[in-house]
Amino acid sequence: MRTSALLWLAPAALASAIPITEESPALSFDKRQNFSPSVFGGKILQADVYAGIAAINQQIYQATQQPAQFKKCNPLNIVVRKEWATFSSSEKKNYISAVQCMSKLPPKTPKSECPGCRNRYDDFVATHIKQTFVIHNTGNFLAWHRYFTWAYEQVLRDECGYKGYQPYYNWPRWADNPMGSPALDGSATSMSGNGAPGCSNQTFYGIPTNEAPLIKIPKGTGGGCVSGPFKDWPVNLGPVFTDSLCTPPNPITDFMDPNMGLGHNPRCLKRDISAWTSSQWTNDEMVVKLLNSADIKTFWYDMQGGNPAFENNFMGVHTAGHFTVGGDPGSDFFTSPGDPWFFFHHGQIDRVWWTWQNINPSSRTKAIYGTTIIADPTAPEAKLTDTMTLGHAYPIDITIGDAMSTMGGPFCYTYI
Ligand SMILES: [Cu+2]
Known about the structure:
Blueprint: H1 2-17, H2 46-65, H3 67-72, E1 79-81, H4 89-102, H5 120-131, H6 141-160, E2 195-197, E3 204-207, E4 215-218, E5 223-226, H7 275-281, H8 284-291, H9 296-303, H10 316-325, H11 327-330, H12 342-359, H13 361-364, E6 387-388, E7 398-399, E8 413-415
Parallel strand pairs: 1-8
Antiparallel strand pairs: 2-5, 3-4, 6-7
Helix pairs in contact: 1-2, 2-12, 4-6, 6-12, 7-10, 10-12
The chain binds copper (II) ion.
Protein backbone atom coordinates (compact mmCIF):
# COMPACT_ATOMS: atom_id res chain seq x y z
CA MET A 1 0.00 0.00 0.00
CA ARG A 2 2.88 2.32 0.78
CA THR A 3 4.15 1.94 -2.74
CA SER A 4 0.88 2.74 -4.44
CA ALA A 5 0.29 5.74 -2.20
CA LEU A 6 3.72 7.04 -3.10
CA LEU A 7 3.00 6.49 -6.74
CA TRP A 8 -0.01 8.76 -6.65
CA LEU A 9 1.93 11.35 -4.71
CA ALA A 10 4.79 11.22 -7.16
CA PRO A 11 3.72 13.86 -9.70
CA ALA A 12 3.05 16.50 -7.04
CA ALA A 13 6.19 15.72 -5.13
CA LEU A 14 8.29 15.65 -8.27
CA ALA A 15 6.89 18.97 -9.37
CA SER A 16 7.95 20.47 -6.06
CA ALA A 17 11.38 18.94 -6.55
CA ILE A 18 11.84 21.05 -9.65
CA PRO A 19 13.67 24.22 -8.71
CA ILE A 20 12.69 27.51 -10.25
CA THR A 21 15.90 29.48 -10.47
CA GLU A 22 17.05 32.35 -12.62
CA GLU A 23 19.76 30.18 -14.06
CA SER A 24 17.52 27.46 -15.38
CA PRO A 25 14.00 28.75 -16.03
CA ALA A 26 13.29 25.90 -18.44
CA LEU A 27 13.18 23.50 -15.51
CA SER A 28 9.85 24.85 -14.39
CA PHE A 29 6.91 22.92 -15.83
CA ASP A 30 4.72 26.00 -16.10
CA LYS A 31 7.33 27.85 -18.14
CA ARG A 32 8.01 25.08 -20.61
CA GLN A 33 8.10 26.26 -24.19
CA ASN A 34 6.58 23.38 -26.06
CA PHE A 35 6.39 20.39 -23.80
CA SER A 36 3.40 18.14 -24.09
CA PRO A 37 3.02 14.70 -22.51
CA SER A 38 1.93 13.55 -25.94
CA VAL A 39 5.59 13.46 -26.99
CA PHE A 40 5.58 10.11 -25.23
CA GLY A 41 2.61 8.81 -27.17
CA GLY A 42 0.65 8.26 -24.00
CA LYS A 43 2.50 5.03 -23.21
CA ILE A 44 3.25 4.44 -19.52
CA LEU A 45 6.36 2.38 -18.92
CA GLN A 46 6.69 0.27 -15.79
CA ALA A 47 10.36 1.24 -15.57
CA ASP A 48 9.32 4.92 -15.37
CA VAL A 49 6.91 4.14 -12.54
CA TYR A 50 9.88 2.68 -10.65
CA ALA A 51 11.85 5.85 -11.40
CA GLY A 52 9.05 8.00 -9.99
CA ILE A 53 9.04 5.97 -6.78
CA ALA A 54 12.83 6.23 -6.62
CA ALA A 55 12.69 10.03 -6.92
CA ILE A 56 10.37 10.28 -3.91
CA ASN A 57 12.25 7.68 -1.88
CA GLN A 58 15.56 9.46 -2.42
CA GLN A 59 14.22 12.79 -1.15
CA ILE A 60 12.68 11.15 1.93
CA TYR A 61 15.83 9.13 2.61
CA GLN A 62 18.11 12.16 2.28
CA ALA A 63 15.83 14.35 4.42
CA THR A 64 15.54 11.82 7.23
CA GLN A 65 18.82 9.89 7.12
CA GLN A 66 21.35 12.34 5.63
CA PRO A 67 20.37 15.70 7.16
CA ALA A 68 23.79 17.32 6.80
CA GLN A 69 23.93 16.43 3.12
CA PHE A 70 20.27 17.40 2.65
CA LYS A 71 21.12 20.93 3.80
CA LYS A 72 23.48 21.17 0.82
CA CYS A 73 21.32 19.34 -1.74
CA ASN A 74 17.52 19.30 -1.54
CA PRO A 75 14.45 19.98 -3.70
CA LEU A 76 15.15 23.72 -3.64
CA ASN A 77 18.47 23.49 -5.46
CA ILE A 78 18.63 20.05 -7.05
CA VAL A 79 18.98 20.00 -10.84
CA VAL A 80 16.89 17.77 -13.05
CA ARG A 81 18.04 15.66 -15.96
CA LYS A 82 15.34 15.08 -18.55
CA GLU A 83 14.67 12.90 -21.59
CA TRP A 84 15.63 14.48 -24.91
CA ALA A 85 12.01 14.29 -26.10
CA THR A 86 10.97 16.72 -23.35
CA PHE A 87 13.53 19.35 -24.40
CA SER A 88 12.10 22.31 -26.30
CA SER A 89 13.54 22.99 -29.76
CA SER A 90 15.70 25.81 -28.42
CA GLU A 91 16.94 23.66 -25.52
CA LYS A 92 17.92 20.98 -28.04
CA LYS A 93 19.73 23.48 -30.24
CA ASN A 94 21.57 24.93 -27.23
CA TYR A 95 22.73 21.48 -26.19
CA ILE A 96 23.87 20.59 -29.72
CA SER A 97 25.78 23.88 -30.00
CA ALA A 98 27.54 23.28 -26.69
CA VAL A 99 28.67 19.79 -27.74
CA GLN A 100 29.96 21.21 -31.02
CA CYS A 101 31.72 23.97 -29.09
CA MET A 102 33.72 21.33 -27.22
CA SER A 103 35.03 20.01 -30.53
CA LYS A 104 36.34 23.49 -31.35
CA LEU A 105 38.16 24.21 -28.08
CA PRO A 106 41.80 23.14 -27.77
CA PRO A 107 42.60 19.89 -25.92
CA LYS A 108 43.99 19.98 -22.38
CA THR A 109 45.75 16.62 -22.74
CA PRO A 110 49.43 17.17 -23.66
CA LYS A 111 50.59 15.79 -27.04
CA SER A 112 52.91 13.41 -25.18
CA GLU A 113 49.88 11.73 -23.55
CA CYS A 114 47.57 11.87 -26.57
CA PRO A 115 49.24 12.58 -29.93
CA GLY A 116 45.88 12.42 -31.75
CA CYS A 117 43.86 14.68 -29.45
CA ARG A 118 42.73 17.74 -31.39
CA ASN A 119 40.01 19.26 -29.21
CA ARG A 120 38.46 19.44 -25.75
CA TYR A 121 35.99 16.66 -26.54
CA ASP A 122 38.91 14.35 -27.39
CA ASP A 123 40.13 14.73 -23.77
CA PHE A 124 37.07 12.72 -22.69
CA VAL A 125 37.56 10.07 -25.38
CA ALA A 126 41.26 9.73 -24.51
CA THR A 127 40.50 9.35 -20.79
CA HIS A 128 38.02 6.56 -21.55
CA ILE A 129 40.45 4.77 -23.89
CA LYS A 130 43.31 4.95 -21.37
CA GLN A 131 41.22 3.58 -18.50
CA THR A 132 39.06 1.01 -20.31
CA PHE A 133 40.52 -2.00 -18.49
CA VAL A 134 39.90 -0.53 -15.04
CA ILE A 135 36.42 0.99 -15.52
CA HIS A 136 34.42 -1.81 -17.21
CA ASN A 137 33.21 -5.04 -15.63
CA THR A 138 34.75 -3.61 -12.48
CA GLY A 139 33.43 -2.45 -9.11
CA ASN A 140 33.77 1.20 -10.15
CA PHE A 141 31.95 0.75 -13.50
CA LEU A 142 28.72 2.51 -12.48
CA ALA A 143 30.36 5.11 -10.25
CA TRP A 144 33.09 5.97 -12.76
CA HIS A 145 30.63 6.46 -15.63
CA ARG A 146 28.38 8.54 -13.34
CA TYR A 147 31.35 10.79 -12.63
CA PHE A 148 32.46 10.86 -16.29
CA THR A 149 28.98 11.90 -17.48
CA TRP A 150 28.69 14.53 -14.74
CA ALA A 151 32.12 15.98 -15.58
CA TYR A 152 31.10 16.21 -19.25
CA GLU A 153 27.95 18.08 -18.21
CA GLN A 154 30.10 20.50 -16.15
CA VAL A 155 32.42 21.19 -19.08
CA LEU A 156 29.47 21.83 -21.42
CA ARG A 157 28.25 24.39 -18.90
CA ASP A 158 31.52 25.90 -17.68
CA GLU A 159 33.47 26.03 -20.93
CA CYS A 160 30.75 26.15 -23.59
CA GLY A 161 28.07 28.27 -21.96
CA TYR A 162 25.39 25.59 -21.84
CA LYS A 163 22.63 26.52 -19.39
CA GLY A 164 20.80 23.19 -19.17
CA TYR A 165 21.70 19.70 -17.99
CA GLN A 166 22.71 16.41 -19.58
CA PRO A 167 19.81 14.74 -21.41
CA TYR A 168 19.23 11.01 -21.34
CA TYR A 169 17.65 8.60 -23.84
CA ASN A 170 14.95 6.43 -22.30
CA TRP A 171 15.70 3.16 -24.15
CA PRO A 172 12.37 1.38 -23.63
CA ARG A 173 10.41 4.40 -24.87
CA TRP A 174 11.95 4.00 -28.32
CA ALA A 175 13.03 0.35 -28.25
CA ASP A 176 10.87 -0.66 -31.21
CA ASN A 177 11.89 2.29 -33.35
CA PRO A 178 15.01 4.15 -32.23
CA MET A 179 15.13 6.12 -35.50
CA GLY A 180 11.69 7.49 -34.60
CA SER A 181 13.02 9.04 -31.39
CA PRO A 182 13.67 12.80 -31.38
CA ALA A 183 17.28 12.02 -30.37
CA LEU A 184 18.01 9.82 -33.39
CA ASP A 185 15.54 10.89 -36.08
CA GLY A 186 18.23 12.75 -38.03
CA SER A 187 16.41 16.11 -37.83
CA ALA A 188 18.03 19.48 -37.13
CA THR A 189 17.14 19.03 -33.45
CA SER A 190 18.55 15.49 -33.13
CA MET A 191 21.96 14.07 -32.35
CA SER A 192 21.97 13.04 -36.03
CA GLY A 193 20.39 9.76 -37.02
CA ASN A 194 21.41 6.65 -38.88
CA GLY A 195 24.48 6.59 -41.12
CA ALA A 196 24.18 6.58 -44.89
CA PRO A 197 24.18 3.11 -46.48
CA GLY A 198 27.76 1.89 -46.27
CA CYS A 199 30.22 -0.66 -44.96
CA SER A 200 28.62 -3.24 -47.23
CA ASN A 201 31.37 -5.84 -46.73
CA GLN A 202 30.05 -6.40 -43.20
CA THR A 203 27.16 -8.79 -42.57
CA PHE A 204 27.03 -8.71 -38.76
CA TYR A 205 28.50 -7.17 -35.61
CA GLY A 206 29.67 -9.86 -33.19
CA ILE A 207 29.07 -9.72 -29.44
CA PRO A 208 31.49 -9.84 -27.66
CA THR A 209 33.76 -9.90 -30.76
CA ASN A 210 33.51 -10.40 -34.50
CA GLU A 211 35.98 -13.29 -34.21
CA ALA A 212 34.09 -15.25 -31.52
CA PRO A 213 30.49 -14.02 -31.59
CA LEU A 214 27.95 -15.30 -29.08
CA ILE A 215 25.34 -12.96 -30.55
CA LYS A 216 25.39 -11.77 -34.16
CA ILE A 217 23.73 -8.40 -34.74
CA PRO A 218 22.66 -8.31 -38.39
CA LYS A 219 23.97 -5.33 -40.29
CA GLY A 220 21.31 -2.64 -40.61
CA THR A 221 20.58 -0.12 -43.34
CA GLY A 222 23.34 2.33 -42.33
CA GLY A 223 27.05 1.89 -41.64
CA GLY A 224 28.25 5.08 -43.33
CA CYS A 225 28.63 8.70 -42.23
CA VAL A 226 25.75 10.52 -40.52
CA SER A 227 24.09 13.62 -41.91
CA GLY A 228 22.32 16.30 -39.85
CA PRO A 229 23.82 18.32 -36.99
CA PHE A 230 26.84 16.02 -36.54
CA LYS A 231 27.71 15.53 -40.21
CA ASP A 232 31.00 17.39 -39.68
CA TRP A 233 31.70 15.88 -36.26
CA PRO A 234 35.40 15.01 -36.00
CA VAL A 235 36.26 11.49 -34.80
CA ASN A 236 40.00 11.66 -34.17
CA LEU A 237 40.92 8.73 -31.91
CA GLY A 238 40.74 4.94 -32.06
CA PRO A 239 39.64 2.48 -33.15
CA VAL A 240 40.93 0.01 -30.58
CA PHE A 241 38.35 -2.73 -30.27
CA THR A 242 35.74 -1.98 -32.85
CA ASP A 243 33.20 -4.28 -34.49
CA SER A 244 33.19 -2.07 -37.58
CA LEU A 245 35.14 -3.59 -40.47
CA CYS A 246 35.11 -0.27 -42.28
CA THR A 247 37.31 1.79 -40.00
CA PRO A 248 40.97 2.46 -40.78
CA PRO A 249 43.34 1.29 -38.01
CA ASN A 250 44.76 3.74 -35.53
CA PRO A 251 48.40 4.72 -36.15
CA ILE A 252 49.27 3.39 -32.65
CA THR A 253 48.16 -0.22 -32.21
CA ASP A 254 50.74 -1.63 -29.77
CA PHE A 255 48.99 -2.50 -26.48
CA MET A 256 52.31 -1.96 -24.67
CA ASP A 257 52.35 1.66 -25.85
CA PRO A 258 50.65 3.94 -23.28
CA ASN A 259 49.25 5.90 -26.23
CA MET A 260 47.67 2.85 -27.87
CA GLY A 261 44.63 4.03 -29.88
CA LEU A 262 45.53 7.68 -29.34
CA GLY A 263 47.22 8.38 -32.66
CA HIS A 264 45.47 10.85 -34.99
CA ASN A 265 42.94 9.02 -37.20
CA PRO A 266 40.50 11.65 -38.50
CA ARG A 267 37.21 10.37 -39.95
CA CYS A 268 33.48 10.98 -39.95
CA LEU A 269 30.94 9.72 -37.40
CA LYS A 270 29.41 6.46 -38.67
CA ARG A 271 26.32 4.67 -37.36
CA ASP A 272 24.28 1.59 -38.13
CA ILE A 273 21.18 1.93 -35.95
CA SER A 274 19.70 -1.41 -34.90
CA ALA A 275 16.08 -1.78 -33.85
CA TRP A 276 16.83 -5.53 -33.91
CA THR A 277 19.09 -4.93 -30.87
CA SER A 278 17.10 -2.28 -29.00
CA SER A 279 13.76 -4.07 -29.33
CA GLN A 280 15.07 -7.30 -27.81
CA TRP A 281 17.24 -6.13 -24.93
CA THR A 282 16.27 -2.55 -24.01
CA ASN A 283 12.47 -2.94 -23.89
CA ASP A 284 10.39 -2.20 -20.78
CA GLU A 285 10.30 -5.84 -19.73
CA MET A 286 14.11 -6.08 -19.81
CA VAL A 287 14.58 -2.87 -17.83
CA VAL A 288 12.00 -3.95 -15.24
CA LYS A 289 13.72 -7.32 -14.89
CA LEU A 290 16.99 -5.47 -14.28
CA LEU A 291 15.33 -3.16 -11.74
CA ASN A 292 13.94 -6.18 -9.90
CA SER A 293 17.49 -7.42 -9.18
CA ALA A 294 17.58 -8.34 -5.49
CA ASP A 295 21.19 -7.34 -4.91
CA ILE A 296 24.00 -5.36 -6.55
CA LYS A 297 25.75 -8.48 -7.85
CA THR A 298 22.61 -9.53 -9.77
CA PHE A 299 22.07 -5.97 -11.01
CA TRP A 300 25.72 -5.61 -12.06
CA TYR A 301 25.73 -8.86 -14.04
CA ASP A 302 22.32 -8.36 -15.65
CA MET A 303 23.24 -4.87 -16.82
CA GLN A 304 26.46 -6.11 -18.43
CA GLY A 305 25.11 -9.19 -20.20
CA GLY A 306 24.60 -11.82 -17.49
CA ASN A 307 26.94 -14.40 -15.96
CA PRO A 308 28.72 -15.54 -18.02
CA ALA A 309 28.23 -12.53 -20.27
CA PHE A 310 26.24 -12.86 -23.52
CA GLU A 311 25.38 -16.54 -23.01
CA ASN A 312 21.78 -17.69 -23.62
CA ASN A 313 21.14 -14.98 -26.19
CA PHE A 314 21.22 -12.20 -23.56
CA MET A 315 22.99 -8.92 -24.30
CA GLY A 316 22.06 -6.73 -21.32
CA VAL A 317 21.10 -3.07 -21.54
CA HIS A 318 24.65 -1.69 -21.44
CA THR A 319 25.94 -3.43 -24.57
CA ALA A 320 22.53 -3.29 -26.28
CA GLY A 321 22.39 0.48 -25.79
CA HIS A 322 25.81 0.90 -27.38
CA PHE A 323 24.85 -1.33 -30.31
CA THR A 324 21.56 0.49 -30.79
CA VAL A 325 23.73 3.01 -32.67
CA GLY A 326 26.75 0.76 -33.37
CA GLY A 327 29.04 1.84 -36.21
CA ASP A 328 32.26 3.75 -35.59
CA PRO A 329 33.16 4.65 -32.92
CA GLY A 330 29.88 3.55 -31.30
CA SER A 331 30.70 -0.17 -31.53
CA ASP A 332 34.17 0.29 -30.04
CA PHE A 333 34.49 -0.78 -26.41
CA PHE A 334 37.33 1.74 -25.92
CA THR A 335 36.44 4.63 -28.24
CA SER A 336 32.63 4.68 -27.90
CA PRO A 337 32.54 8.13 -26.21
CA GLY A 338 33.75 9.52 -29.56
CA ASP A 339 30.06 9.44 -30.59
CA PRO A 340 28.26 12.12 -28.51
CA TRP A 341 25.41 9.61 -28.31
CA PHE A 342 27.48 7.92 -25.60
CA PHE A 343 26.36 10.42 -22.95
CA PHE A 344 22.66 9.95 -23.78
CA HIS A 345 23.07 6.21 -23.27
CA HIS A 346 25.17 6.53 -20.13
CA GLY A 347 22.74 9.12 -18.78
CA GLN A 348 20.13 6.38 -18.95
CA ILE A 349 22.52 3.76 -17.50
CA ASP A 350 22.98 6.17 -14.60
CA ARG A 351 19.23 6.78 -14.32
CA VAL A 352 18.53 3.07 -14.13
CA TRP A 353 21.23 2.59 -11.45
CA TRP A 354 19.79 5.60 -9.56
CA THR A 355 16.33 4.03 -9.83
CA TRP A 356 17.56 0.68 -8.52
CA GLN A 357 19.48 2.35 -5.68
CA ASN A 358 16.55 4.46 -4.56
CA ILE A 359 13.94 1.73 -4.60
CA ASN A 360 15.67 0.84 -1.33
CA PRO A 361 18.15 3.64 -0.59
CA SER A 362 19.18 2.65 2.92
CA SER A 363 20.60 -0.68 1.80
CA ARG A 364 21.52 0.09 -1.81
CA THR A 365 23.09 3.55 -1.94
CA LYS A 366 26.51 2.20 -0.93
CA ALA A 367 26.14 -1.27 -2.48
CA ILE A 368 29.19 -2.18 -4.55
CA TYR A 369 30.27 -5.31 -6.42
CA GLY A 370 33.27 -6.17 -8.59
CA THR A 371 37.04 -6.06 -8.67
CA THR A 372 39.46 -3.37 -9.81
CA ILE A 373 40.44 -4.94 -13.17
CA ILE A 374 38.31 -6.11 -16.09
CA ALA A 375 37.65 -9.85 -16.32
CA ASP A 376 40.03 -10.56 -13.43
CA PRO A 377 38.21 -12.12 -10.46
CA THR A 378 41.56 -12.45 -8.66
CA ALA A 379 42.17 -8.68 -8.66
CA PRO A 380 41.41 -6.82 -5.41
CA GLU A 381 37.76 -5.97 -4.74
CA ALA A 382 36.86 -2.36 -5.49
CA LYS A 383 36.35 -0.32 -2.29
CA LEU A 384 34.35 2.83 -1.60
CA THR A 385 37.63 4.55 -0.66
CA ASP A 386 39.23 3.88 -4.09
CA THR A 387 40.10 7.03 -6.04
CA MET A 388 38.70 7.77 -9.50
CA THR A 389 40.46 10.11 -11.90
CA LEU A 390 39.36 11.56 -15.24
CA GLY A 391 42.83 12.55 -16.43
CA HIS A 392 42.87 15.79 -18.39
CA ALA A 393 39.13 15.67 -19.08
CA TYR A 394 38.34 16.98 -15.59
CA PRO A 395 40.88 18.01 -12.96
CA ILE A 396 39.39 16.72 -9.69
CA ASP A 397 39.74 13.19 -8.27
CA ILE A 398 36.94 11.74 -6.16
CA THR A 399 36.37 8.36 -4.49
CA ILE A 400 33.89 5.69 -5.50
CA GLY A 401 32.07 6.49 -2.23
CA ASP A 402 31.68 10.11 -3.33
CA ALA A 403 29.85 8.94 -6.46
CA MET A 404 27.38 6.51 -4.90
CA SER A 405 24.58 9.06 -4.46
CA THR A 406 23.37 11.65 -6.98
CA MET A 407 22.76 13.84 -3.91
CA GLY A 408 26.20 13.30 -2.37
CA GLY A 409 29.85 14.04 -3.14
CA PRO A 410 30.05 16.70 -5.86
CA PHE A 411 26.60 15.82 -7.23
CA CYS A 412 23.17 17.31 -6.74
CA TYR A 413 20.86 16.06 -9.46
CA THR A 414 17.85 13.87 -10.02
CA TYR A 415 15.96 12.42 -12.98
CA ILE A 416 12.46 12.90 -14.23
CU1 LIG B 1 32.71 3.06 -20.76
